[in-house]
Specification:
Strands 1, 2, 3, 4, 10, 11, 12 and 13 form an eight-stranded mixed beta sheet that branches. The chain contains eleven helices and 13 strands. About 30% of the residues lie in helices and about 25% in strands. The radius of gyration is 19 Å and the shape is globular. The chain is an alpha+beta fold.
Length: about 325
Amino acid sequence: MNHQSEPTRNLALELARVTEAAALSAGRFMGRGDKEAADAAAVNAMRLVLGTVDMNGIIVIGEGEKDNAPMLYNGENVGNGSSPDVDVAVDPIDGTRPLAFGRTNSLSTVAIAPRGTMFNPGPFVYMNKLAVGPEAKGAINIEKSITENLKAIAKAKGKAVEDLTTIILERPRHDAMIAEIRKAGARIRIIPDGDVAAALMTSMPDTGVDVLIGIGGTPEGVLVACALRAMGGEIQGKLYARDEDELRRGREAGYDFDKVLTMDDLVSSEDVFFAATGITDGELLKGVRYFGDGARTDSIVVRGLTGTVRQITATHRLDKLDHLGSIHY
């Protein structure tokens, strides 16, 4: 890849503008019970601001496969067409249901990496994941049992298994995993939604979360891999077929459901950027706060090459923003 194709310019702050716009637009729908309207607002705002970013982007992880969305679909070109050439992963709302029902940990995320370096899961949108922070990087192996991994993580972090805090989505498919974690003696945080925020929390020391375990979205796994590149953590995954038909179709398409997807498989470049903005309150980020003619957002942006993690609190004058474009905040 030549130097003109590599995103060596720091685009992290540009991506913060993208997730801020999506969060500001979607935040109006908190608790109103309308997932479709919230998602449409976030997608529209994200797409419009992505179009102003100096890049020639192709959506690799988009809305289309999961939500049949007409915009931000896999294969769509985004950016203003200038260099660098990049892959783009988006999740305008990670946690649409929590947002619609006024619950915690809904956020907007986007990541970019040099063209051809992001894993493309196609229509196979679930994977088994194991994610940890920097202290346990190199200690995990998703092919080993949960108990073995908990012991390895505890040893790497210099604590007892009983002192570890695991985090896992509340799903029937996780009943056996939760039972094994309990038998091993680790503490468990069971969350209804939002495993992007949960995975990032493993690399944020103040959250008290040591490891994410369980089956969630493959697109979210790619987004998390981009973030953990900068934050020093690690994620491993294996594609998960929901039924025999999906397994058959995947194998016919050339996907290996037995392969361990490492960080390098999920995103093979260090030159990555990731941004997330809170929509509803969570332990990772605060949600959007509206006041009079303005609003406040809380974001995190990371850059893989430097390992820089920025936390950004921004105040927005909505009366001014409404006059600058077609996005309604």
